[in-house]
Amino acid sequence: MGNDGGSIPTRRELVKEAARALTTTQLKETQTEAASYAWSTDPITLKTLSLPVVSDCAGKLYNKDTILEYLLPSDDEAAKLEAEKVLEGRVKSMKDVVEVKFEIESGVDSVAERSAEREVWVCPVSGRELGPGAKAVYLVPCGHAFAGSVVREVSAEGCLQ
């Protein structure tokens, strides 16, 4: 041992950059990405959400046909197990989900493609866009979706529509 030209590296040399916590900006970006994904993608099939949309008791959005396929008996056990992992036992029948009724306004997506038309879900009372970054609520008996601020300000016993 020695005089062979080798060296023993120290910890400082092996670990060039120490693990550090995410900054506030990085945390906000991560949360925004997660929210936009949750508002646009069905977590079971990973397809784009399209009307009719249903929600479980945790507020996750799913395509209605995806939930129907999950509840119907099928031979594909692997897909059923995968769906059960995502649903976490919250959906056992159609009574466990509420069909969310969004008001649609077609708009231009200026970020991705300026010429492409896309569906924009809006609050029927205030006209504000519902989606990532906006607080939105739906009423359980009827399923109408509104901006959270509208429901707080208007104290009605029934549906606002």
TrEMBL record:
Biological process annotations from GO: DNA replication termination
Pfam families: Rtf2
GO cellular component: nucleus
Full protein name: Replication termination factor 2
Species annotation: Lepidopterella palustris CBS 459.81
